[in-house]
Amino acid sequence: MEKLIKPMSGYLALLIAVVSFVAAIFSFANVEASSLYVVLGVILMIATFFILKGLMIINPNHSRVLNFFGKYVGTVKENGLFFVNPLYSTIKVSLRSDNLQGQTLKVNDKMGNPIEIGAVIVWQVGDTYKAAYDVSNYTSYVRTQSEAAVRHLAGSFPYDNLEDEGAEITLREGGDTVNHILEQELSDRLAPAGVIIKEARISHLAYASEIAGAMLQRQQAAAIVAARAKIVDGAVGMVEMALHKLSEKDIVELDNEKKAAMVSNLMVVLCGEKAATPIVNTGTLYQ
């Protein structure tokens, strides 16, 4: 598990290193006075480089994972100049949010139709210990698992409900629900790397080029059928209302044959694609 530590300030260590370096220069300059100055100068110079090696600068939204001969010591997330044991090895881990624009993938949806899908993912490291030690390369891990999650999402739902009319969730109309499912799956997959998913959204969704034309025709046909059904439903209601009003107000009495003719004419007028041309009857209804 991640363990946060706060090292000592590095400004005092930096000052000591500068003083030690100046003293070493002074010792080498007075080597003719005594041979001890050579030994003192060497010791001071080694101490200077030893202190400087222990200094580290941590920028905003960055961290350092400290390791001492194979043992995890802790993580420093505070910003500034610090001094740590010069024998510590450090691993830089960025805490900034990062965007992953996944490539457009060609996969099959739940119904087996080839589709193209892509996603944009916003992520950041939340646990530096897992990011540094539980996976070999956390950035590569994010890319690979993100692609796997998008592929799994595409295969779990149909593109639309043309073939699966009972589908509660489709990729095209799922909207925030589909994005939430993707975020949850990414969070589960990337948890071993200590990565937090801040946002995940489908950025590209379309039928594959080899079936795009056929699916477009199918969608157009479905839209035409739905429109025709709506027109017929409205026309039947209008005919029913017309017959009811004529009978209720006793405007004219029609036998079954004339009612059938009237219904036929009204349906043709109301359901026709083009405007009907009226013909004025100057005789009686039976001529």
From TrEMBL:
Pfam families listed in its UniProt record? Band_7
What subcellular compartments does it reside in? Membrane
How is this protein situated with respect to the membrane?
Single-pass membrane protein
Q: Which Gene3D superfamilies match?
A: Band 7 domain (3.30.479.30)
Q: Which InterPro entries match?
A: Band_7, Band_7/SPFH_dom_sf
**UniProt keyword annotation of Membrane present:** yes
Task: Give a Gene Ontology cellular component term annotated to this protein.
Answer: membrane
Q: Where are the membrane-spanning stretches?
A: 12-29, 35-58
State the protein's name.
Band 7 protein
